[in-house]
């Protein structure tokens, strides 16, 4: 009975002990969990780094003995470390978190030995030194009775350590403390990463904010400048309108004053004009606060006469006026102005007057910008004034003419001979109108209407008399727009007239030379023996046009491209002949300009081929002719497939499988290529919806990025297919980014917020995206295959330098790179050495309808 009772008591005692142990274990777990929560909260707080680490020390001290604790970070690339935190009861060392200490400067440090060892160390510091072969060095602090150090790891790399130690008590730390400190160390590392990430984010936000402020300031300045330009443009239009609509010159001056007042301070304003004999100065318009009336005067040495004599604007304050007076150059007349601005008025490069504004108040001054503005306006006022004066003179002349016509009409009514003269004049006018309807107004040559009429007659004669043949030559001047843009349209008109004259001189007497419009001419040559006659005449015309000529004081060397269409019974109208001659002309222009080309069956077949291809393209869009092929993108070190690029193929019913290069031109010209792209995108979404690993990238042309709803449409397609947007990438070019920067930014951010990342394709071939690249959320740079192919051969140094620069840029932006067009092992090895992570090309696989997920079995060097 006692034995049974003892068993019961012992059993109850054991149960109590186990319960107590579980309670203690649970309490430790709760303390550890609470500590980790506190560390996470500290990492997300706004505390400074030193304050955050001090509070983390307090948290660790609540879990174990940690009166003496320090934290170091280790950089294995530079082989240096930094003491982020150092708290010690005996060691007086003060941590400098921003100072990098090379490991070579601390050969006898137990902390360095811990980082090299890579595993936790525990025990008396003397025993640890002896175990690791580290000599005693008093510079590294006193020895401790118990020392516990745990390395901090990121993946497989040692990136720091946390150490606690006791100077007066041995065996303070055991396996439980070691495991606990190792667990806490990783959370501290995570907290540090989050802290540094937050600091980096704040830095980037600050940089972006400053960039936006600069952009906003520039935008505000641009808006102000545009508003000013618009106001000036409205003023100029108003002046031009006034020169036509104002009833009198006095009304014109008043309204011009109103226009100038809208641009600058013009309360005191007058217009001075030289009389016809140039001896006196009159003031047809004057508004002034102090000098109410300005009488006509002989030319003296006033400020107005000074501007007329010099032919240049004058902006003078009181001090400048006094200086001019002291030099004897001017003598002020009337009330003294505080600031005076006068601008000459010109007519045919001669000064005819002055437009003046002035201020009597020190608070109002005119600037150089006001001078430039008034000078610009004065030029248009001169034009408007001349036009208005001419109009007034014309009105007076018309009035006089009407009187004379009335008198003459009464005389003509009395004589039948005069009536016959009028009838003859009418016939002449009708003939002139008829001539104008069939001739070009600038050159006097036949126009398109008359040419088509003569072509109809030539076709009719050739159909009735098969032995008669003719040809049409279509001529277009090369780089004519350059003449217009450089020396003006009037000079361009001179060149057009000279071109027509030279063509007429070069052709035969019975040939028809017509100007079709712009810089296009056509020549109809009839009764020819064969195509050689047309070609010889074309060469003669080109030689005549190639002779230099003087246009607007400049020597110009014109040239032209010329197309020839020979008569063939298949033609029904002259427009068809002109069309084919035009096509031949474009063939000549594309072949290098300053030459001629004859329209032949090859051109016709090419036109028919393009027409048929466009029709096939439309039918294929409605059918299932387009299919996505997938080319693998692999990791260069082990050839593991990480994704695929979807490439468009057309399974043509007659020509077999076509690549985009064989039909992309027709698709872009007809606008059908966008529909084809969406067919490809739909197939990719269906492929993604079937599951699998790795991403699929699709090419997006700049044409899509100009569409404001592209991102929304793509996301709707992803949702409808049930695909994972995180497995989709879009490949864009630099042109798409820079075509409309704000729209591109919005589109990329919208897609990225839903998981669709962007890759920059053919990187390095553009010339402007580097200045914008940091603004765009780009996930990857694809190094253009032209640089990859150059990694082997004569261009290796240049290509290696370019790829290295791209890698440095990508590293700075925190993005990876893909080498395109990898075709041999040497290119792959060089890309790996330069730091490129991924590759794509025939070395890893050709485009196929099925995606490959296994790595290639290649012999990898190095």
Description:
By secondary structure, this protein is of the alpha+beta class. It folds into four domains: 40-195, Beta-Lactamase, CATH 3.30.450.40; 246-397, 2-Layer Sandwich (Beta-Lactamase); 440-599, Alpha-Beta Plaits (2-Layer Sandwich), CATH 3.30.70.270; 616-840, TIM Barrel, CATH 3.20.20. The protein is 50% helix and 20% strand. It contains 25 helices and 28 strands. An eight-stranded mixed β-barrel has the order 20-21-23-24-25-26-27-28, surrounded by five helices.
CATH homology superfamily of the largest domain: EAL domain
> N-to-C terminal Cα separation, in Å?
80 Å
Strand line-up in the sheet with most strands:
20-21-23-24-25-26-27-28
Number of domains: 4
Q: Which CATH-level-2 architecture of the largest domain?
A: Alpha-Beta Barrel
CATH topology of the largest domain: TIM Barrel
Oligomer: single chain
Brief overview:
The protein is built from 25 helices and 28 strands. The strands form 5 sheets. An 8-stranded mixed barrel has the order 20-21-23-24-25-26-27-28, surrounded by 5 helices.
How is the secondary structure organized here?
Blueprint: H1 2-43, H2 49-61, E1 68-75, E2 80-87, E3 101-102, H3 110-117, E4 121-123, H4 125-132, E5 146-154, E6 157-166, H5 175-245, H6 249-263, E7 268-274, E8 280-287, E9 297-298, H7 303-310, E10 314-317, H8 318-326, E11 339-347, E12 350-359, H9 368-412, H10 416-438, H11 448-464, E13 470-477, H12 480-487, H13 489-506, E14 512-517, E15 520-526, H14 531-546, E16 549-551, E17 554-556, E18 560-566, H15 574-590, E19 596-598, H16 601-622, E20 626-635, E21 641-652, E22 656-658, H17 664-670, H18 673-689, E23 695-699, H19 702-705, H20 710-721, E24 728-732, H21 734-739, H22 741-753, E25 757-763, E26 780-783, H23 785-789, H24 796-813, E27 816-820, H25 825-833, E28 838-840
Parallel strand pairs: 18-19, 21-23, 23-24, 24-25, 25-26, 26-27, 27-28
Antiparallel strand pairs: 1-2, 1-6, 2-3, 4-5, 5-6, 7-8, 7-12, 8-9, 10-11, 11-12, 13-15, 13-18, 14-15, 16-17, 20-21, 20-28, 21-22
Helix pairs in contact: 1-2, 1-5, 5-6, 5-9, 6-9, 12-13, 13-14, 18-20, 20-22
């Amino acid at each position: 009975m006692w034995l049974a009772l003892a068993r019961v008591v012992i059993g109850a005692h054991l149960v109590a002990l186990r319960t107590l142990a579980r309670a203690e274990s649970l309490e430790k777990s709760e303390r550890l969990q609470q500590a980790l929560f506190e560390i996470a909260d500290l990492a997300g707080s706004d505390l400074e780094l030193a304050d955050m680490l001090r509070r983390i020390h307090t948290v660790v001290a609540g879990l174990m003995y940690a009166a003496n604790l320090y934290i170091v970070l280790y950089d294995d690339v530079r082989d240096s470390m930094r003491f982020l935190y150092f708290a010690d009861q005996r060691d007086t060392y003060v941590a400098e978190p921003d100072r990098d200490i090379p490991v070579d400067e601390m050969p006898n440090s137990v902390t360095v030995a811990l980082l090299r060892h890579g595993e936790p160390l525990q025990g008396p510091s003397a025993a640890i030194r002896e175990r690791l072969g580290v000599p005693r060095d008093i510079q590294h602090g006193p020895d401790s009775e118990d020392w516990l150090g745990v390395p901090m790891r990121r993946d497989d790399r040692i990136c720091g350590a946390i150490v606690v130690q006791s100077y007066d008590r041995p065996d303070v730390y055991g396996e439980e403390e070691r495991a606990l400190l190792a667990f806490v160390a990783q959370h501290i590392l995570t907290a540090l990463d989050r802290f540094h990430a937050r600091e980096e984010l704040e830095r980037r936000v600050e940089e972006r904010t400053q960039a936006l402020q600069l952009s906003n300031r520039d935008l505000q300045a641009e808006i102000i400048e545009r508003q000013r330009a618009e106001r000036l443009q409205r003023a100029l239009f108003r002046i031009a309108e006034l020169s036509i609509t104002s009833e009198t010159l006095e009304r014109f001056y008043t309204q011009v004053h109103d226009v100038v007042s809208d641009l600058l301070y013009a309360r005191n304003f007058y217009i001075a004009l030289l009389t016809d004999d140039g001896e006196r100065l009159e003031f047809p318009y004057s508004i002034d606060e102090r000098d109410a009336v300005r009488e006509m005067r002989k030319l003296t040495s006033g400020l107005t006469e000074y501007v007329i004599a010099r032919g240049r604007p004058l902006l003078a304050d009181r001090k400048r006026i006094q200086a001019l007076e002291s030099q004897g150059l001017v003598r002020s007349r009337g009330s003294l102005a505080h600031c005076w601005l006068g601008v000459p008025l010109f007519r045919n490069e001669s000064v005819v007057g002055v437009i003046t504004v002035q201020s009597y108040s020190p608070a109002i001054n005119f600037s150089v910008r006001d001078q430039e503005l008034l000078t610009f306006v004065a030029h248009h006022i001169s034009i408007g004034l001349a036009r208005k004066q001419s109009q007034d003179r014309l009105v007076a002349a018309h009035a006089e003419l009407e009187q004379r016509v009335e008198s003459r009409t009464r005389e003509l009514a009395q004589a039948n001979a005069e009536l016959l003269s009028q009838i003859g004049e009418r016939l002449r006018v009708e003939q002139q109108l008829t001539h104008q309807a069939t001739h070009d107004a600038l050159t006097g040559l036949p126009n398109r209407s008359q040419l088509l009429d003569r072509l109809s007659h030539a076709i009719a004669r050739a159909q009735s008399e098969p032995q008669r043949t003719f040809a049409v030559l279509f001529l277009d001047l090369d780089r004519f727009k350059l003449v217009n843009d450089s020396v003006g349209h009037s000079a361009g008109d001179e060149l057009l007239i000279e071109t027509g004259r030279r063509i007429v001189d070069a052709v035969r007497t019975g040939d028809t030379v017509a100007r079709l419009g712009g810089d296009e001419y056509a020549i109809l040559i009839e009764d020819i023996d064969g195509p050689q006659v047309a070609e010889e005449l074309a060469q003669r015309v080109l030689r005549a046009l190639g002779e230099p000529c003087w246009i607007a004081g400049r020597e110009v060397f014109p040239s032209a491209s010329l197309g020839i269409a020979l008569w063939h019974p298949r033609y029904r109208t002259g427009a068809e002949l002109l069309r084919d001659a035009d096509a031949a002309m474009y063939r000549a222009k594309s072949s290098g300009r300053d030459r001629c080309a004859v329209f032949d069956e090859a051109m016709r077949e090419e036109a028919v081929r393009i027409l048929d291809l466009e029709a096939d393209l439309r039918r294929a869009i409605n059918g299932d002719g387009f299919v996505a092929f997938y080319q693998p993108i692999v990791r260069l070190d082990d050839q593991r497939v990480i994704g695929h690029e979807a490439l468009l193929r057309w399974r043509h019913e007659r020509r077999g499988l076509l690549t985009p290069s064989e039909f992309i031109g027709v698709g872009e010209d007809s606008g059908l290529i966008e529909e084809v792209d969406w067919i490809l995108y739909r197939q990719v979404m269906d492929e993604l919806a079937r599951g699998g690993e790795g991403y699929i990238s699709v090419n997006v042309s700049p044409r899509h990025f100009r569409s404001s709803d592209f991102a929304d449409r793509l996301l709707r397609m992803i949702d409808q297919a049930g695909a994972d947007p995180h497995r989709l990438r879009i490949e864009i070019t630099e042109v798409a980014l820079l075509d409309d920067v704000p729209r591109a930014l919005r589109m990329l951010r919208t897609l990225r917020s839903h998981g669709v990342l962007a890759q920059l394709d053919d990187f390095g071939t553009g010339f402007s995206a580097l200045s914008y690249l940091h603004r765009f959320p780009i996930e990857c740079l694809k190094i253009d295959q032209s640089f990859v192919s150059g990694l082997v051969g004569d261009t290796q140094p240049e290509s290696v330098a370019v790829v290295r620069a791209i890698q440095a840029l990508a590293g700075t932006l925190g993005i990876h790179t893909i080498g395109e067009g990898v075709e041999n092992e040497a290119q792959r090895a060089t890309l790996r050495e330069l730091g490129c992570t991924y590759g794509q090309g025939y070395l890893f696989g050709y485009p196929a309808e099925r995606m490959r997920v296994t790595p290639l079995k290649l012999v990898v060097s190095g």
